[in-house]
Amino acid sequence: MTDGSGEQVRLTMPATPQLLRVARLTAAGLASRLGFSFDQVEDLKIALDELCFAMVGTKGGEGSLTIDYRLEHDGLVIEGLSDSLPPVSRDANDELSNLILTAVVDEHEVSLRDGIMRFRLLKRRTASP
User: N or C: the chain end with fewer CB closer than 10 Å?
Assistant: First the structure.
């Protein structure tokens, strides 16, 4: 099986919550290609939902959302950024979101740099029991 190390996929789409399904499907397809289990793929989709929703919110906005998927030997790194969206207000749900992300991925971060909201997550493939 080819592990896909070093391969990268970039997805750029309008910043609307209706299109987040495309981001999830892309992540699921790539994770399956890397040999992730069904549960690992589901965890990855949950994490991507949390992070993308932090950028897009319920109504979306002007601009686009760019998501880079990088296939590594033992995992998948996903990074996202918005080009012209104001960051979605983060509130009490941050703590819950952080707990969810901590439970389903190996690493995650959300940052605001140069007025652009960004995220990064890493999900490693683990052996099935």
Answer: C
Query: Under a CB-based contact definition with an 8 Å cutoff, are residues 88 and 54 in contact?
Result: yes
Q: Residue 38: is its pLDDT beyond 70?
A: yes
Residues 80, 120: Cα–Cα separation, whole Å: 7
Asked if 21 and 9 count as a contact pair (C-beta separation under 8 A), the reply is no
Give the pair of three-digit tokens for residue 97. Answer: 């979101």
Give the sheet arrangement for strand 75-82, strand by strand.
Answer: 8-14, 64-72, 75-82, 116-124, 107-113
> Is residue 23 scored above 80 in pLDDT?
yes
Q: Which CATH class is domain 8-124?
A: alpha beta
> What is the token pair recorded at 73?
């030997």
pLDDT value at residue 126: 84
Token pair 């897009």 is at which residue? 56
Cα distance between residue 13 and residue 76, in whole Å: 20
Q: What is the CA radius of gyration of the chain?
A: 14
Domain residue ranges of the chain, discontinuous segments joined by +: 8-124
- Answer whether 85's CB lies under 8 Å from 49's CB: no
